Structures are given as C-alpha cells and as structure tokens.
Amino acid sequence: MSGANVTHIPELRASLDDPRFVLLVLGAAVLAVFPYFGYIWGETYLVSLVAKMLIFAIAAVSLDLILGYGGMVSFGHAAYIGLGAYAVAVFSKYGIDNGYLQLVCAIAGSALVALFIGAISLRTSGVYFIMITLAFTQMLYYLGISLEPFGGDDGMNTKRSDFSLKLLGIDFTLNDNLFVCEKRTDKNCKVDDRDGAAIYYASYLALLASVWFCRRLVSSRFGMVIRGAMSNPVRMQAVGFPIYRYRLTAFVIAGCICGVAGFLFANHQQFLSPVYMNWLRSGEIMIMGILGGIGTIYGAAIGAIGLLTLEEVLEGYVGKDYWQMVLGPLLVLLVLFANRGIYSLIPHRMSGVPMFVLRIGVFVLALAGFVWLMSKASPILKIAGSVPHLPLYVIFGSIIVALGLRYWQESRSSHA
What we know:
This protein is mainly α. The protein has 17 helices and four strands. The strands form two sheets. It has a two-stranded antiparallel sheet with strand order 1-4. Strands 2-3 form a two-stranded antiparallel ribbon.
C-alpha cells in the first residue's frame, strides 16, 4: 500500500464520522436517481419541481459567494437569471438552437453586466451598495418589458436548447429520452414522455460543479482575501491587497454562475419573462441563502430546496396569494433560533446525531402546527392580502429584519 493511500485513510474516516459529509453524499445520491423513480411512479411534476430546485440552488450558491464570504448584500442578483434566459430567447428567436453557443453567450453577457454593475456599486458600501444593485436590476427589468420583439411584459415561449455533440465517433448528445421504456406496454412504465430528464441532469451536474468550484475558491488565497475584506477592509488594504479588484472579481464570478442558472431556467420553463429579473426574485434567492445558512455554500443549496418545498406546502394550505405572509414570520423565527441557518443545525460528530434528530423532529412538529394554525386563519390572511402589495412588503421586511438580526448576533459574538 502506498504512502499516499495510507495518508488518506484517516481523512476518509474523519469524513465518514462527520454527519454533514454523510448527509451531503446521501443527498447527492438521492438526487442522482430521483428522476428514474419519479418517472416510473408517474410523478413527472415532482421531477420538474426538483429540477427547478436545483436551478435555484445554483443561483443561491452564487449569491452566497459574495454575500456570505464577501459581505455584498446584492438585491440585483436576479438580473443574471434574466440575462441567461434572454440569451436562450434571442438565439432561439433567430433559429439558433445550439445550446453550447447559448450557454457561452449567457455566461459572457452575465460577466459583462456584472463587471459594469460591480465596477460602480463596489465603490460604495452598506445601504448605498444595496440601492445601486437594486436600481440596476430594476432598470434591466423595465428594459425587458420594453422589448416587444421578445414579448415585452407578456414574455414569450422559447425552444429547448440543442445539445447535440459527437467527438471521436462517440455521441454525447444530451436528450430527453433517458428513461423511455423499450415497450409502451411495459406495466412498470406509467409515463411515455420523458421530457425534461436532460434539463434535470444538466442542472444536477451544474449544481455539483458550482458547489465544488465555490468551495475551492473560498478555501483558496482568493477566498481568504475577500473574507478578510469583509471583516476588516482597512487592514487588508494596508497589508497590500487590492481588495476592490478581488471583490469585483468575486462579483463577476457570481454573476457568471447565476447566468448559468438563468440559461437552465429558460430551458426548464420553455418560457421567457422579464419577471425573472424583478427585485423580488433577488429577494427570494437571498431568502434561500438565509434559510440554509449564509457563508457555507452547502447551506445555500439546502435553503433553495427547503424554500421551494415550503412554498409548495404553504400554497396548498394557505393559498398561492398569501404564502409569503406566513413565510416572513417563519424566516425571522429561524434566524432567532438558528442564526446560521439549517446547515448549522447538523452536528459535526456522529455523537450529536440523536440530539440533531430530536431538534429536527421538534422543528418539523412546530412548523406543521404553525402551518395548520395559519390555514385556520385563512379568512384573516385574505383580509390582509386585500391590502395592495402587503404580502410583498411582509416578505421584504422579513428579509431586512432577518439580515439585521443575523449581523447583530454576529457582532455580539465577535465582541464577547
């Protein structure tokens, strides 16, 4: 046995003793085989829903890179989802369906816009940075509304990107027939149309690549610099690091990753709308990060899956128009009792698993009770919901309160 293998054995054992590592591996394995069982059971909607979760997990991971490690509270992150989606729509409208070309243009367009927005907004800080990023994303949103050739405010239907590729005689084409039954009379196959399997796995692989890349980035010297710039920019500047360039680079990288999410989202929805760039979408991505845990990368992905699952549940109990009014208080309570999000609740050692299971059980029961209570209070929610834009104000206010509470708790712990 070589020395390298002997060295890696203790590291492997340490990883297997970490519940976070075990849960992440199990989660990735479940997501890898989920479409197969979903199609066999005839639950195509669930496969489509999980694909949407994976896409927004990519966007949340990209935001966590600059928010959790760089302290950049950007309310304009949804702009890059829109840019990635428009890259698909523009090429599709003119008959260019090559997915690889569309993807490259989505990344390049997002990079250029992120470079422009970051070059201006990163010269400010605090509330000024928030307002500048918010202003730019709203400008792009209204620009999308004014583009009548692409549907304007109504949006437009788009075609799925073509991922045909043959290299060295091998067909690497990504298609939607991954799980088509050999015989239509197969009793174990409830659905003959496997539309969306390709997008699911493209999103799955893109999420794995995004998480791996961001984790490597924040663990590198580059990541140490942007973290140092977040905690003490004056000292980092005095040491000799050009923190503006480091922060701008991180901002552009985050925009590129989010542009990939927009490209996948347009293919998933087969529809383009300026709503993708609305500031409310940026707030939704930020909630995903807060829910899962800012500054962890993994937590952002978990938060995206958790939020969209919670949205489905709340819509079923309290209605599609009022679920934000229930989510807002839940978000504030989560920050109060787990200020680092869901990911922080998972213990570092197997010895802490029983207590973790108990906490999760109590949390799920409390959540179920709260949702049931809100479902009984639906008449009150309807009255409150009649106030123009009140649900949006509730969710936006909850984001501000949650961020404020989190930074207040961190400042207290740092001065303790």
